[in-house]
Amino acid sequence: MADLPPLKNPNAEAKPLGTDMPVSSADVGEPAAGSKDVMIGAGGLLVLALLFFFIRGAYVNYLVGSLKRSPNNAGLAGWGLFGCLFFGAAIGCVALVGKSYLTLAVLVPLALLSLVCLILCLVVSSKK
Questions:
Q1: The whole model's pTM is what?
Q2: Where are the domains of the chain?
Q3: How far apart are CA 21 and CA 100, in angstroms?
């Protein structure tokens, strides 16, 4: 068998801890959002959801009253408007709270849901 080298070099001097790793001046990026930031964003999204709920009710009343749409179609169009506004606001809250969460895995589903809700709102509100 071949001789293996020793595990420790007996001639090496003892170094204090923490001096082995070189310090890099490279930018490591933005820090992740803290729990306080996430709670502020969630609270803002909750307030916006409440506002969008009242906007939905006003839109449904407008469709039924002024445009003479059926209440079922108007209700579905109202929920489509609510979904479109809510998912758009969710994208905005994610962008404001933590830029580290702005990835395609987060943005694409929210954007697709918002677009589907907008199309639902427009198609259903045009039916009598």
A1: 0.73
A2: 35-126
A3: 27
